[in-house]
Amino acid sequence: xxxxxxxxxxxxxPLRGLLVLGAAVVLAHLAVLQTLPAVLQVNxxxxxxxxxxxxxxxxxxxxxxxxxPVAKPPAPHKPRPTPRAAxxxxxxxxxxxxxxxxxxxxxxDPAASAAEAAAPAASEPxxxxxxxxxAxxxxxxxxxxxxxxxxxxEVTQATAFRFADPVRLLYNLTGASKGLHYNARGELLWQxxxxxxxxxxxxxxxxxxxxxxTSAGAITPAGLAPQRFSDxxxxxxxxxxxxxxxxxxxxxxxxxxxxxxxxQDQLSVVLQIAGMLAADPAHYPVGSSITLQTVxxxxxxxxxxxxxxxxxxxxxxxxxxxxxxxxxPQKEFERKVELWLGPSISYLxxxxxxxxxxxxxxxxQLRAVEKP
Length: 372
Hints:
15-stranded mixed sheet; single chain; outer membrane lipoprotein receptor (LolB), chain A; 35% strand; alpha+beta; rod-shaped
C-alpha cells in the first residue's frame, strides 16, 4: 500500500513537469508563428496559407517570358536609330513596311535627304506643267506684198531660148564718177552646161579698185533662173531668189520683194534677152519691147527695153552689125541702160552703157573674144 502511493507520488511529479514543458513549447511555437509573416515578407494580411521555403527547387513547366528590350538613349551627336524588331537575321524591308510596324516615324535616309535637298521644298508651290501654246497658222507662201496683176501681165514670158557657149569677152571701159573721168579694163565670163550657168562681169578701175558683179543659177524652160546675185565693190551686197516662197531677199536688210515670172538680176537680164533674141529674132521686131523684173542688190524694179533696130557701129574689136535696145527711165532717179547686142556672137553685148541720174556713166566696148 505504501509502495503504491509512493509510486503514484513519484509519477505525478514527472507528469506535471511534462505538462508544464508542453505548455511552454506551445507558447514558444505561437510566438514563432506570430513572427513568420515579417520573416517571409507576406504583405497580404488575409493570407491563410504560408508555404515554407524548401532547399530543393523544381523547374517551372511554363518557359520564362522574353526579356523586355531596354531602349538605349540616343547619342548626342547621332540621330536616334529607327526601332527594329529583334530578329536573328532580319531581311530588308521597304520604308513603307517599317513605318507601319513602328509607331515612331522613321528617320530620313541620308541618300533620300540628299535627293530631297536637290528637289524643291515641300512648302514651295509646285508649278503645274503648262501645255505649249498652239502652233501658229502657217504663213502664206510669200510674205512679201503680192505683185499687182498688171505687172504680171506686162512681163515678157518667152518660151524659146538659145544661150551662147561658154566664152570670155574683154572690154575697154571709160566712165565718169563724181566729175572724175577714168579708163579701165573689164571682162564678162559666161559659163553654162545646159542645166546651170554662172556669169561674172568685172572691171578694174585705176585708183578706184575693182568691182565685180556675179550671177549664178539654173537654166530652165523659162530661161535663166538666178539663185544669187552679188555686187562687190569695197564691200559685198547680195540678193537671193527664194522661188519656193516667191520672193527675193537682200543681205542689206532691205524689204523683201515678190518675184514675178521670169525674174532676172541686173546681170542675168542681159543674158536672158540675148538667149531670147538668138532663139527667135523675128519674134522681136523693131518697135517691140521686152519687159522683165530686174532684181538689184538692194531692191527690184521693172526694166522695159525698147528694140530700136539694127545699127552698124565701130568698136575697138571690129566693125559689126548690132541690134540696139534702150531702157528709158520711167521714174525719177532711175538709171538709163543702153545695149548693143551682136548677132554674130549669139547676141551677147558688144557695147553696154549705164548712165546714172546724176550724170555718172560707165561705157564698156568689146575689144576681144576668148575661150574661157
